[in-house]
Design brief:
Elements (H helix, E strand, L loop, with lengths): L2 H16 L21 H10 L2 H9 L6 H9 L3 H17 L7 H15 L6 H9 L4 E5 L7 E9 L3 E9 L8 E2 L6 H5 L18 H22 L3 H13 L1 H4 L10 H9 L14 E5 L3 E2 L2 E11 L6 E3 L2 E14 L2 E13 L6 E10 L2 E11 L5 E10 L2 E3 L4 H12 L14 E3 L3 E4 L10 E9 L5 E6 L2 E6 L5 E5 L7 E8 L5 E9 L7 E6 L8 E10 L6 E8 L2 E6 L5 E6 L6 E9 L7 E7 L13 E9 L2 E2 L8 E5 L2 E3 L3 E6 L3 E8 L8 H15 L5 E7 L3 E8 L2 H9 L9 H10 L7 E8 L10 H11 L3 E6 L6 H14 L3 E4 L5 H12 L1 E7 L12 E7 L3 E3 L3 E2 L2
Parallel strand pairs: 14-15, 35-36, 35-38, 38-39, 39-40
Antiparallel strand pairs: 1-2, 2-3, 3-4, 5-7, 6-7, 7-11, 8-9, 9-10, 9-12, 10-26, 12-13, 16-17, 17-20, 18-19, 18-21, 21-22, 23-24, 24-27, 25-26, 25-28, 28-29, 30-31, 30-41, 30-43, 32-33, 32-42, 34-41, 36-37, 42-44
Helix pairs in contact: 1-9, 1-10, 6-7, 9-10, 14-15, 14-19, 16-17, 17-18
């Protein structure tokens, strides 16, 4: 490094500092009003009252915990609340991007080493070690012109980039090293020198005051230049000093834990049951009942009645809403058993004098302590209620065989590894219940026996329906029926209705079959059928969340009025359904914390006949690409398009141009023996495709097929999962191409947004159970564009090419024929270009076109270029 150039650079940087730019650290983030700042004495007294493990926690995390966090932790009232805080503490640091969910484990490993390596874990070097791990290299300077120095080198450091150097020095008369702080003008450089190095140079008497002043300012730079020339490690010291000056603002954040925002405080406070001493107190009447059984667990229904006069509604548009937040915990033997959080909404015109807050939980028979806090979300008024729960065992007079077996197993188990506590007296329930037993196969085809499970009193017959059509009534046990689900998987909706002795409907269940494998979904499990429903109604929800994602909340609606918001399992809620003459509906909506993921929902009609006549108002959507000179166009309007349904023009009801929507991509890769020589290149090209294409919000799956298709990786948003699946593909056996197309397309049922299936194969089908016609019909029904890539398929293989071409053409995809797997990359570029840039056209079929009819051909024409879209639809 040129000494003169370095001196100029240092002078420039420090001139900015001296003039006041970036001369002070950022202001401390204001403490949230929800956390009261404790005095040193209050902290000391609160720490002394902690149990040993929580006192150890505060000691262990002292280098990284914020003062506001410590005050909040010390304000909590119970050990279970502090356990919740500890989990939240580590979760926030994981989400800060430090260790991908493992920072807690890593931190304690580093802590054990830090206690051996450093005098104090609160020192700068120890904190650096704890937060960012050991350096990749350490240089210890022995130069006499500088204080004892250590230069820590990191190949990469979050916030500072790559090849980072950090300079630690030991100040005069200090016991430990400090991280050098360049934000301090020329004095910061002087901190690095020994006393001899900064001794005043002899100055000629003839110099003017201005010259002497300039010399005094430049002295640190003169000294540091001499260090570079005279010290064996001078270049390293200069590089570290220069780099830290350039990064002087980012260095201020090096030890900063994640800021404790007001939202973080609210999140922590909403998940623990702690009374706010300054809050207005609410009155809450508590009662509990045990209405049902779920396997070996008992349904616990707690109700709190809160006087409406003590609550304040909030204005939402032209209406008013009472909103009550609930946080609760269940303790067993003084230890946290489970915790939960809800939100309840009541319309402002509600007439009840007391608003019912109903909490449904599932607990094994035993004794527990319930702690519940209800808070008026609009005023902060609250009530905290503690109550002992003596949970009984529920006995059903007509028990289901599987439930009896589970109860027998659970009775032999011990809770928490200790002998089971004496159980309360059993409670008998006569409530009629009916459940459809899901088939073991997925997808379901052919003739299958659908069985039901009956419990309680009153059910004398079961009525079976499929897709809105009544099939049969069974009047004796076993209540089961053989269903014909067809040769290829189709989405089917089956319903079973329990009838009393007069054939009056009592209860029922409904099940959707062959609805795909999308991992994010919600289902209203009960009630699925209700001939007459009003008053307090128990609603059970099934929620499936993709691996690696977190559920944000589940909302439950009656018609369009939100009744409750659930944050924790089990998703069971009792709601008050108002009396009404006509039909209504329950709607459940689930949302992920990932904002890019769209919500999912389920709807159940109630207070209706067994089935009402359905009108065909289904919008037919056509993802469409227009190619001009071989490239997708994005400049067209709806006037440039015409849709023909069986040759007759229809009105375009929807027109959008979409770019960069989340993609859902499936890849079916041929793993038959003939792919042996091409497999390595195909795997590499497939990995490159997903690496290049997948972005935040996208997801993909991988199917390999030889004599039969196999799921190598279910739906996942992670590129690493898809790569690992491709790496596991091994070529062997024959080629079941048509089975692979059906099996892969099945996974798209229920998936929204932009979709595509990519099929890679080198030959004709030799082993499928499904015929080509069946695979073609299934591809038409799923409405997913298929992109087939034929590797080494000769032009003379006319039949093979014709069949692939037709499947792709009629679904809006394309076929590509290449000779070598290395040619796949250009194909992938073309596919991505199409999928990321499409028009969405939509129309409503004519009212005289009945659902369930035959395939109808579609033509989409454009005045500007070549159109690619689906070639028809099933009404």
């Amino acid at each position: 490094m040129n000494p003169k150039a370095l001196a100029v650079a240092l002078t420039f940087a420090f001139t900015a500092t001296i003039l006041g730019q970036e001369s002070t650290p950022p202001k401390e983030t204001p403490r949230s009003d929800a956390v009261r700042k404790l005095t040193k004495r209050e902290r000391k007294e609160a720490l002394s009252r902690l149990d040993e493990r929580h006192r150890d926690f505060t000691s262990d995390v002292a280098p990284i915990i914020l003062p506001a966090e410590l005050d909040l932790f010390l304000a909590l009232e119970s050990a279970s609340d502090r356990d919740t805080f500890v989990d939240e503490f580590w979760r926030r640091r994981d989400h800060h991007g430090r260790a991908h969910g493992k920072f807690r484990e890593i931190y304690y490993q580093r802590l054990a080493l830090a206690k051996k390596m450093f005098k104090q874990i609160g020192s700068d070097r120890a904190k650096m070690f704890l937060l960012h791990g050991p350096p990749d290299d350490v240089l210890r300077s022995t130069c006499a012109r500088v204080q004892p120095l250590e230069i820590w080198k990191y190949i990469q450091l979050p916030g500072l980039g790559t090849n980072v150097r950090l300079l630690f020095y030991k100040p005069r008369n200090a016991a430990d090293f400090r991280l050098w702080n360049p934000v301090g003008g020329t004095g910061a450089l002087s901190d690095l020198f020994t006393a001899e190095a900064i001794a005043p140079a002899e100055q000629p008497m003839a110099r003017s005051r201005g010259e002497a002043s300039r010399e005094s300012v430049s002295t640190p730079f003169s000294n540091i230049t001499r260090i570079q020339l005279e010290c064996a490690d001078g270049n390293e010291i200069m590089m570290a000093v220069t780099q830290m000056i350039q990064s002087r603002v980012d260095l201020l954040k090096l030890f900063a834990p994640p800021e404790l925002e007001a939202e973080d405080v609210r999140s922590i406070m909403s998940s623990v049951v702690i009374a706010n001493p300054n809050a207005t107190k609410l009155t809450a009447e508590f009662s509990v009942r045990y209405p049902a059984k779920d396997g070996s667990r008992t349904g616990v229904q707690m109700m709190l009645l809160v006087p409406r006069a003590e609550l304040s509604p909030a204005a939402v548009g032209e209406s008013e809403v009472y909103t009550i937040d609930v946080s609760g915990e269940v303790l067993k033997d003084g230890q946290l058993w489970e915790k939960y959080r809800y939100r309840f909404d009541f319309p402002g015109d509600v007439q009840a004098e007391k608003l019912p807050i109903v909490i449904d939980r599932l607990l094994r028979p035993n004794e527990y302590l319930s702690r519940v806090k209800v808070t008026d979300a609009n005023t902060g008024a609250e009530a905290v209620v503690e109550q002992v729960l003596d949970v009984p065992e529920i006995f059903e007079t007509e028990p289901i065989a599987e439930l009896i077996a589970e109860d027998a197993r659970s009775s032999r188990e011990s809770v928490g590894g200790t002998p089971a506590a004496p159980q309360p007296e059993p409670v008998e329930t006569k409530e009629p219940r009916l459940r459809i037993v899901p088939p073991r196969e997925d997808p379901v085809t052919g003739v299958q026996t659908i069985q039901t499970q009956i419990a309680g009193h009153g059910i004398k017959a079961v009525e079976f329906w499929m897709d809105g059509r009544k099939l049969a009534v069974r009047r004796s046990e076993p209540f089961a029926l053989d269903f014909d689900f067809g040769e290829v998987p189709q989405m089917r909706r089956i319903r079973a209705i329990g009838l009393d002795v007069r054939d009056k409907p009592l209860t029922g269940d409904e099940l959707a079959l062959n609805d795909g494998t999308d991992p994010f979904r919600i289902r209203i499990a009960s009630p699925r059928f209700a001939p007459r429903l009003e008053g307090m109604t128990r609603v059970e929800l099934d929620v499936s969340v993709p691996d690696g994602d977190q559920l944000d909340a589940v909302e439950l609606y009656w018609n369009e009025t939100r009744m409750a918001t659930l944050f924790d399992e089990p998703f069971v809620q009792t709601v008050d359904i108002p009396k009404s003459e006509g039909p209504g509906y329950l709607r459940a909506v689930a949302r992920l914390k990932d904002e890019a993921a769209p919500p999912v929902e389920d709807v159940v009609m109630v207070n209706t006949p067994a089935y009402m006549e359905e009108l065909n108002v289904h919008l037919i959507e056509l993802p469409t690409t227009v190619l001009i000179d071989g490239k997708p166009s994005d400049k067209l309007t709806d006037k440039a398009f015409r849709i023909l349904d069986e040759g007759k023009p229809v009105t375009i009801a929807k027109f959008d141009y979409v770019r960069d929507l989340p993609l859902s991509i499936g890849m079916a890769i041929d793993s038959s023996g003939s792919m042996q020589l091409r497999m390595a290149e195909a795997q590499k090209a497939g990995a490159q495709f997903f690496e290049k294409v997948m972005r935040k919000g996208d997801k993909a799956f991988v199917v390999a097929f030889d004599a039969e298709p196999r799921m190598m990786q279910k739906w996942s948003p992670k590129t690493s999962d898809v790569h690992a699946a491709l790496a596991r593909v091994r070529p062997e056996d024959r080629t079941a191409l048509y089975d692979a197309i059906v099996y892969a397309l099945y996974n798209f049922h229920g998936v929204r947004g932009q979709k595509a299936l990519i099929v890679i194969s080198d030959g004709k089908d030799t082993a499928s159970k499904f015929t080509y016609d069946q695979a073609l019909e299934y591809a038409r029904r799923t409405n997913v564009p298929v992109y087939a890539i034929g590797i080494g398929i000769r032009p003379s293989d006319v039949d093979v090419r014709a069949k692939l071409d037709r499947i792709c053409r009629e679904t809006g995809g394309s076929t590509y024929y290449i000779q070598q797997a290395r040619d796949l990359q250009k194909v992938y570029d073309d596919i991505q270009s199409e999928l990321r840039s499409q028009y969405i056209l939509g129309f409503y079929p004519s009212p005289d076109i009945k659902a369930g009819g035959k395939w109808r051909e579609l033509t989409v024409e454009s005045s500007e270029g070549k159109v690619k879209t689906v070639k028809g639809y099933f009404p």
